[in-house]
Amino acid sequence: MTRIGLAVHRFRPDALAAARSLAAYCDERGIDVVAPEGDLGAIATETVVSGDMSGVDLLVSIGGDGTMLRAVGSLGGLPVPVMGVNVGTLGYLASVDADRLLEAIETFLSGEAGTDYDLDVRMLLEVSVWTKGARLSHHLALNEVALEKKEAGHTVRLAVDIDRERFTTFVADGLIVATPTGSTAYSLSARGPILSPRLRAMLLTPLSPHMLFDRSMVLDPSESVRIEIGGHRDVHIATDGQWTHTLVPGDVVEVRAADETARFVRFEQSRFHRTLKTKFGLEDR
Hints:
Rossmann fold; six-stranded antiparallel β-sheet; Tumour Suppressor Smad4; alpha/beta
């Protein structure tokens, strides 16, 4: 182990303190630590240098689920394990408490996958955006890709093909294509179902549809989704909560299950159902 990547919540003092503690630990052991340029000023220690994640052996995310999403996005699909350190409110993704960070790092450095820790493999979405027949962008999503109306008080028309066959045109405020990991994020607020993150599936959830059919659909990962912007109104598109483009009528978004995956370091058995129970205040009766 020679190189660790670091992503940190820049506006939480406890996250920055944990990052500096990790940096000092690694410096004593001759381990390089790199972070995105935007995080360096906040961390404010000379033992962390600017760098991308292409050569890291582990990426440590210190913050909450938002920081984890940014960390996974910075990998661009590289099969690098991500250790999520939670210093925010209870989230679904980060699993290591801040006061156990150095202990977790030590276990990872000296241990073996499958014995001392596990790698929780999560599905990603491959998202391509097309305008006038040319590909505008191509990226990966851990939670979801969301298409939403640009103007308040109006609906948009989104023509959806599933496996190259027209399904329907949604007249709605928007549309979400989510992974099982993302089923507890934006899709959940639109009354979509909760899926176990162990599944490989795509979840299609309309936002406030103005039509009789208002249900989410769970699709097989082999099925592709094509969405064409119809009507005459523009649409915003965001990936994992980050706005990327404004689309115009005729533009197309293609979504499919990615070959790449995200890999989360876990030191306990899957906590998903335990976290879900806590988040919703569920009690045994």
